[in-house]
Amino acid sequence: MKKMVALVVVAMSFLTVATAQTKVTFQIDMSEVEGKFKAPEIHGNINDWAGPIKTEHIGDGIYEAKVKIKNKKPGDKIYWGARYWKINKNVLEDIPKECGGSSQSKPRPGIYRTSVVPEPKEIYRWKWSGCRVDM
């Protein structure tokens, strides 16, 4: 009986690890983007490529999304980028290589950044088509 209980406890601990989530707050500084545009969306493996993650304007040109990243922990590699719509045109980020832009991105290089999952409750803020901003 003790072995059975021990097996159940071990199995449940593996299940908890396998379904772990890391909550991350992403913020995009759009203050230098000119003209009218729709709120940017975030795309990438942070949600298993399941489609756009909507952002909300929180003031001063900053847009925010709170994301639960499944099956990844702080330090794991992630790929993601943002885009917005301006006058019926899909505008993709052009991320410099020194800011994590990937030269292997499809449909074109530089639209996804490579980084790691930040620590829980850490805010990941970056300038549109630029680097991470220290807060």
Features:
single chain; mainly beta; Immunoglobulin-like; 5-stranded antiparallel sheet; 1 helix; 9 strands
What does this structure look like?
By secondary structure, the chain is mostly beta strands. Helix content is 13%, strand content 38%. Strand 4 and strand 5 form a beta hairpin. The termini are far apart. 22% of the residues are buried.
Low-confidence regions:
none
Largest sheet: 5 strands, antiparallel
Terminus-to-terminus distance:
54 Å
- Mean pLDDT rating: 81
By DSSP (H or I, 4+ residues per run), the number of helices equals 1
Fill in the CATH topology. Answer: Immunoglobulin-like
Q: How does the SSE layout of this entry go?
A:
Layout lengths: L1 H17 L2 E9 L11 E4 L8 E2 L1 E4 L2 E9 L6 E10 L2 E4 L20 E4 L6 E5 L8
Parallel strand pairs: 1-9
Antiparallel strand pairs: 1-5, 2-3, 2-6, 4-5, 6-7, 6-8
